[in-house]
Amino acid sequence: MGSLQSSPSHQDYVDLAEKTGFSFEQISILHKRFKQLSHNEDKLRREHFGQITDLHANPIREQIVEAFFDKRNFYQEIEEPVSEISFENFLVVMSNFRPPSDNMSQEKLVKVRKEKLRFLFNMHDTDKDGTITLEEYRHVVEELLSYYEALETETARGIADAAMLEVASITRGHMEPDEFYEGITFEHFLKLLEGFDIESRMNIRFMNMDTTTLCKLECRNKVCSE
Amino acid sequence: MAGLGSVCSRRLAGFVSLLLLVFMAVIGSASPDAATGANETLRNSSEHRKAFPVLAFNYEHVSKPFVISLWILLALLMKLGFHLIPRVSHIVPESCLLIFVGLLVGGIIKAMDQTPPVLDTKLFFLYLLPPIILDAGYFLPIRPFTENMGTILVFAVVGTLWNAFFIGGMMFAVCQIEAAQVGHVDLLSCLLFGSIISAVDPVAVLAVFEEIHINELLHILVFGESLLNDAVTVVLYHLFEEFAHEGTVTVGDALLGVVSFFVVSVGGVMVGFIYGVLGAFTSRFTSHSRVIEPLFVFLYSYMAYLSAEVFHLSGIMSLIACGVIMRPYVEANISHKSYTTIKYFLKMWSSVSETLIFIFLGVSTVEGPHNWNWIFVIFTLILCLLSRVLGVVGLTFIINKFRIIKLTKKDQFIVAYGGLRGAIAFSLGFLLTDTEKKDMFLTAIITVIFFTVFVQGMTIRPLVELLAVKKKKESKASINEEIHTQFLDHLLTGIEDICGHYGHHHWKDKLNRFNRKYVKKWLIAGDRSSEPQLISFYNKMEMKEAMMLVESGSAAKLPSLASAASLQNAQQRAPPKQRAIPSISKTREQEIRKILRANLQKTRQRLRSYSRHDLFSDPFEDSMSEIRFRKQRVQMERRMSHYLTVPANRQETPSARKVWFEPEHKVYTYDESESPRDGAALETLPDTVSLLSESPQRPGQSSRLRKRGDTEPSANAPDSQEEPQKLSRCFSDPGPKEEEEEGEG
Q1: Site from B488, B499, B537, B707 to mutate, A interface, most A CB atoms within 10 angstroms
Q2: What percent of chain B has pLDDT over 70?
Q3: More reliable by pLDDT, A50 or B570
Q4: pLDDT tens for residues A94-141?
Q5: Which helix (H) or strand (E) holds B706?
Q6: Which residue of B has its CA nearest to A226?
Q7: For A6-20, what is the mean pLDDT?
Q8: Which ranges of the sequence are coiled-coil (chain A) (predicted)?
Q9: Which residues contact A138 (CB under 8 A, 6 or more apart)?
Q10: Rounded to an integer, what distance in angstroms lies between the CA atom of residue B443 and that of residue B424?
Q11: Distance from C-alpha of B386 to C-alpha of B428, rounded to nearest angstrom
Q12: What is the average pLDDT across B56-60?
């Protein structure tokens, strides 16, 4: 199903593979998924993400979906606002979750780590100004805690505040009484998560064989490709 | 000079006391002939009229507990003694020293022609082993364990099977050599021997790995393997033992063996699971009898172990499962004190057990009937090493195809090198009934144990340094890391959903949701059941800090002052950027502080009248939680309004106290005598960063002080007297003088 002209040729796959590091099989599986989500269109829009039923229970689904439409993650110049993404963009965002390959040199590992942290940072920094402000961080914590019912915003705030204080203490040390802590910049963020081995944690196992059980999508007025 | 003298005299004192105790132990285990003799003469001489015995000597009466206590005392004094000799304890792991002492004691006892106590199998399996395993299971780091479960299982099951068959088979071949004169050993006996010696021992691994602080992944791999291979060992041992008498094994028996393996392992886990759930459920109702809470944990776990042993299921797996299942729910239900008690008792018992095991191992070595056969022993040793290396390398090759984070050559080496054998092998060997081969086997087993513990145990530390293996990160409980851990979990689950395949994270998420919806409601008391993990984490941190504040006596005076001061500040200075700043009215602020103060005074009074029965309701905790919440709200809001109101004059004192929340299984005490320095006090940065100086219990920990960037926000409990003045001085505006006085009143 699906028109031939919308499937990229082997040559395109090569380009993509080089750019993102995925293997051909992985790319073709992801492409299949892309087409399933977008109902065989070329571009993916936000509402397509809304069809994924499993995602509804996720407390940070909005940020996740936004990450796909965040131009900072595309490494190319696109005008804002981004309302639809191509398969290439989809793949580039996904490539952030690729595990580092076995024989990477130390510096490459550091680079990979930085990229992953950059992705996380962009997810937190919703107003795209380069710093994570208190309000944004509070929002993150509230979203995380919204997973559980019956929560007071006070406690969420308390936690976010404590976290900010910790960041400030790590990065700025003691501050003058009239100094003001603007927000977490990317360098501070790096320092904050120094002990966090993100390069081994932020990974998804991408299948090489087509054993994916393509999850159910909500069917709305369209023929579902299951 | 004086220093040297004191060191020498300390050593001397240590040695003398050790020797004294050794002699006492010897006498203790000597037969109580003298005692009975004395009694008899007394009776004989007073047949006419029994004079009232003013002083009598009746040793028999207490001989058993006396001897046991003496041995335990000896073991613990040895442990103490080692730390008087600093250099040795750095090079030689404690287990080696203990075995050595055991050898000495055994030798002395033997020289006096007495029979030393032997490491009886029943004693070992029923009394000495469970505390160690429970300690390990209860504090098992769940996340790395479940993430590497596949690898651990492969190593434990397939690796042990490979070891057993390889060693057994090759030893049979060796036995065929004429020169060895061991031709009478048949294949089945060899396989039995192989199965005994192939299992990696958790006690030995714990003892050695604990001291080298290797990174978490390797630690959990070797340790997890040593725990989970128990099922394989049990099945193989029983299988071969049954058929060693028969002489042959049919295919049917082999199949039954496989089935038995599944029964033993899954059955063991189920038994542990049931007891764990029972324990969690019971703890839900203990709010009125806090004192006995720890007992429930211990008893349910021990029952799980014993019940599994009744059915010949794997007791170790049962114990681990029980501890793992029980822990999250129990910890949500019990009081903080009970939690501390559990932690301390487990550490204490496991420490004593471990010490006793190693000492007895030494004693039994001297004692036991030995049958030294050069070829047998040497080949056993070589084959053990060889099979371990081959097994690890081969399995890793396969496993790496399925792992995201591959195991490097260095990792493989450490895993192979860390395969230590220990007392379990010895005890299993002791259980053998065929005396002729038993002695030879035992000798070989002991040799292998000694080799692995001494040689491998001693050299693993320098090797780790040499190979620059990653060490364990000193992780502080950082709330940012906790937030990001949870964030990552949800993120990865979401990405998996987008990708469309049900992976590892998806199922974990489903399990968590199930847990939250149904299980927690049943097993956790009250409204704690809906408490999110992040909050309980945060609360734990706050609780710790609040407790330390109160215990040091100067407590909530400070936060209220800080908040009052900062409130003043905030209102007088417009923040440079436009941000939404919440503000509470001054009257509310005062109300809060009054309540805080009242609570604190109540707490302090109650603390003074302490008795066991007063612990029914935990007033300390109730006020703590109130204080905590109020403080949290007030303090945070105030400080957050301009992020940090740390006064500028806080210099770093060179010996600023630092603490971090060490990973949970480390038990620490803090020195109440240490009072924080003056200048350092003000920073009431409570939360995650640094509070108190800690001296961990486990030996070998040295440095605790650590620099974090350029800050040393230091200790909590401030010197209350200096506080108020400092505070007011720091702020440009005069600050709330009236509130200060109220606070001190």
Answers
A1: B499
A2: 61
A3: A50
A4: 888 887 776 677 788 888 888 888 888 888 887 778 777 778 887 887
A5: none
A6: B500
A7: 69
A8: none
A9: A156, A157, A160, A161
A10: 14
A11: 22
A12: 85
* R_g of chain A computed on alpha carbons: 20
Residue A65 CA to residue A68 CA, distance in Å, equals 5
Q: Model ipTM?
A: 0.86
Q: Which domains does chain A have, with CATH numbers?
A: 9-98 (1.10.238.10), 101-197 (1.10.238.10)
Q: How far is A217 from chain B (nearest CA, A)?
A: 10
Q: Taking 80 as the threshold, does the pLDDT of residue B629 lie above it?
A: no
- Helices (H) and strands (E) in chain A — how many of each? 10, 2
Inter-helix orientation angle B423-430/B336-367, to 10°: 60
Give the per-residue pLDDT at B129.
92
Q: Which residues of A touch B499 (CB under 8 A)?
A: 30, 33, 94, 204, 206, 212
Nearest Cα neighbor of B467 from B411, B517, B507 is B411
Other CB atoms within 10 A of residue B696 CB: 14
CB contact under 8 A, A180 and B683: no
pLDDT tens digits for range B116-132: 777 778 888 899 999 99
Q: What is the pTM of this model?
A: 0.70
List the alpha helices (DSSP H) in chain A: 10-20, 24-38, 46-49, 61-68, 87-94, 106-124, 134-145, 153-172, 186-192, 198-201
pLDDT tens sequence across B163-202? 999 998 888 888 887 666 666 777 888 888 888 888 888 8
Whether A166 and B633 lie within 8 Å, measured CB to CB: no
Q: Do B487 and A215 touch (CB under 8 A)?
A: no
User: Strand, coil or helix: what is A84?
Assistant: strand
